[in-house]
Amino acid sequence: MESVQILNNRLNKAKNIKEKKAILQELYKQLVKSKTNRKANGLFREFVENDSYNGHKFAWGLAEQLDKYGLTNHARRLREQYSGIPQKPQRDWTELPNVLGNQEKIEELCSSGDAGRDLAGLGCIAAAFNKTAEARRQPADPRFLYPTSRQFPFDETTYKIVKALEERDFNVPGIKVEFHSYGPSDSYRRVETIEGDDFRLWFCREQGRIGSDWNDTAAVSNLNIPFKELSVFSDNSGPTLRLYVGDNWEKDKEGFVNSVKVNSKLREEPRTYLRYSGSWQKSSKGGVYYPGKIAPFLTHTNDLDREYEPRGNEPKYFETKKIFHEFDEFLKGKLEEITSLKSVMN
Question: Residue 258 and residue 254: Cα distance in Å, rounded?
C-alpha cells in the first residue's frame, strides 16, 4: 500500500472535518522545513529528505489533501519545498517482501535508524507514524519564551512573576501554572496561565516575530484581580475593562473570571458586571480615534443596549493610567509573596 493511499484511509476513518484537518496538520508539521531548516522529529521527514521516491510522492499527495480542506498556504509551502523530480529507487516497492502483516518485523524496521529510506517501500508507514507521534509532540529542546514586552506598565511585573516562578520550578503553593507549546514540532513553549485564589493572568499577546513564520505570543493579554478584569492588545486597541457589580463576590468570582462576558443584558443573564472600553473622552458617545495610541479613558459602553448600564454611584468611566497602576500594584504584591519563598535555583 502506497503512502498516499494510507493517508486517504486515515482521512476516511476520521469522524469529521475537524479531525481530518488535525491529521493533515500533524503530518504537515513533520514534513515541512522551517525557515531555519530545523528538522522535525519523525521518520516521514527522514525518508523524504533522503529523496525517497514514495516519500516524495507522499508529500505531494499531502499537498493535494491540504488544498482539498482549505489549507492552501500549507499546500503551497509543501510544493515549494518538494518541487524537484524525485528519483525512483533501483528496486520498486512491489519487488520487496510484504511485511505489513508481520507486527514484529514492522516494529523492528520502524525502530531501525536507517529504515527511513525504505519505509515507504516496505509498507509500514502508518506504523512508523504512530510509533513516532509521541516523539513529535515532545520536542527534545523547545525554546521557552518570556513576556519581554514593555508596552504596558504591568508588563515588567508579569515578566518578573514568570521568572520568579521559574526559579521555584513553577511549584508555588496556591498558584497553578499552565503552559502552551506551538510552532514546528512544538518547538516554542510559553506560560499560558498563572492562577491563584484572587488573581489570574492569561498570556497570549503578540510581542514580536520568531523568524518569518511565527508570532511570539508570550506577553500577558488578560488580567484578573478582585472585582476587575482587564484585556489589552498588541495594537493598543481597547483596552477593555469589566467591573464586577454583583452582590456576592465569593459566590460569583469563579464565574466572573472564567465566563465569557459578552452581551449579558441581551442574553438575559444576571447583572454581574459592567463593560468599559478605551475612549478619548469621558462619555460613551464616540469621537476621535488615534490608531496605535492608548486611549486615556475607559468609558462605559452598553454595546447598542446589549450590556447593562451603571446605576447610582457606579462609575461611568475610569482613567486608563490609574487602572493600569492598580493592576500593576496588585501584581507587585503577588510578586513579593512569590519571592518570599525559597528559590530552588539557590
Answer: 6
Q: Is 79 exposed, middle or buried (0-12, 13-18, 19+ CB in 10 A)?
A: middle
Q: Is 246 helix (H, G, I), strand (E, B) or coil?
A: coil
Return the C-alpha cell found at 157.
Answer: 511585573
What are the residues whose beta carbons fall under 8 Å from the beta carbon of 117, sequence distance 6 or more? 46, 47, 50, 52
Q: Please say whether the beta carbons of 308 and 268 come within 8 A.
A: no
Task: Provide the grid cell at 204.
Answer: 497570549
Helix axes 53-68, 17-31, angle to 10 degrees: 140
Distance, CA of 145 to CA of 19 (rounded, Å):
29
Q: Mind spelling out the 3-state secondary structure of 217-239? A: CCEEEEEEECCEEEECCCCCCCC
Return d(Cα 125, Cα 99) in angstroms, integer: 11
% of the chain surpassing 70 pLDDT: 70
Residues 6+ apart with CB under 8 A from 300: 274, 275, 276, 284, 309, 310, 315, 316, 317
CA 207 to chain centre: 14
C-beta of residue 155 within 8 angstroms of C-beta of residue 225: no
DSSP string over 147-212? ----SSTTHHHHHHHHHHHHHTTT-BTTBEEEEEEESGGG-EEEEEEEE-SS-EEEEEE---EETT
Contact 154, 331 (CB under 8 A): yes
Cell of 51: 529523496
> Over the stretch 99-138, which tens digit does the pLDDT of each residue have?
344 545 544 544 444 444 444 444 444 444 444 444 444 4
The tens digit of pLDDT for each residue in 202-257 reads 999 999 998 878 899 999 999 999 999 999 999 998 899 999 999 999 999 998 99
- Look up the pTM and report it: 0.60
Q: Which three cell numbers stand for residue 10?
A: 486515515
